[in-house]
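Read as chain and fold; for instance:
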Amino acid sequence: MLTTTESKTTRRVSAAALHAFLMDAMRACDLSEADAAIVAGAMLEADLTGSDAHGIFRLPGYVKALKRGAMNPRANIRELERGPATALIDGDHGMGHVVMTYAANLAVELARGAGVGWVGARRSNHAGAGATYAAIPLRRAMVGIYGAASSVNHMAPWGGSEPLLGTNPMAVAIPAGNEPPVILDIATSLASNGAIRTYELDGKPMPEGWVQHRQDGSSITDPRRINEGTYLPMGGYKGSGLSLVIGLLAGPLNRAAFGRDIRDFAAPAGGDGNVGQFVIALDVARFAPLDMFKAEVDRHIRELVSSRRLPGGDDIRVPGMGRAARRAERERDGVPLNAAVLAQVDELAKSLAITPLGARA
């Protein structure tokens, strides 16, 4: 439930109202019914599971990109290469949600035959929460892995000051039995771009150490000044190295952009982007009986969360547990939306000639 302070700036919106609004917005941007459903479903999934910076928060940016042609609402996704366990697809500059849903389903198809399926994508776009696509193999009793070369560079290589790396995220989903599946979804920066942008929208200072000034390395806490700095990687040089590796596997391996070749899709003069991503599906049954594996995952989860805690420490959690709890709470009580976000999307609704979200809640 919301606290008294939160309730003054936050409003609960039902999942049904949110989904209907997202569907109308995508249709108004000329997406087909099927593709609108994919995008709306992925954005709603982000809001339900707590990846708030990848849900309706992103809608104004997506609509702007669609309207100016940076994203193709009627993309013709094509398979450029295909083997027994691998494929490369061209997203035709379509919305990343549509391209990566196609990629994840194809990875599952390949894994059914070969045990593993690796699908790379080029000429894609921002796809929202990576866990959405890692979870597609998960629903078929497979391990899912997602990685992306971000559509804009915010990080510098370790020790540098020039933004040549993205916050290049990765997500991994592992099946469990009676416990929630293990789902890890992380950016390689200390804080994701979406999280930083929410501070900008709220007009609140960011925590120290998220963004450093390009000239002297001092900490920037004013979110209005993030363009003067670079985001810091998680884990110091390790996070920088991980961003580099994910970027190379999602970018050059797929004939997609990386480093200086990245074009910010939100920039007015950005030109055609070439976002690269990949999805891997791994058939658990090729390694161990599925029920046995799930039981083992359950056992280890229980041992981890019941292990000794530090005095005064929080409960021990495994990635995916918070996600499951948020989904249950938000499906029951509605998705909490910041008043500024709600006002922004209601203003957007006027330009799209659709019923505002605030009128549906």
Residues 1-68+334-361 form a domain with the Hypothetical Oxidoreductase Yiak; Chain: A, domain 1 fold (CATH 1.10.1530.10).
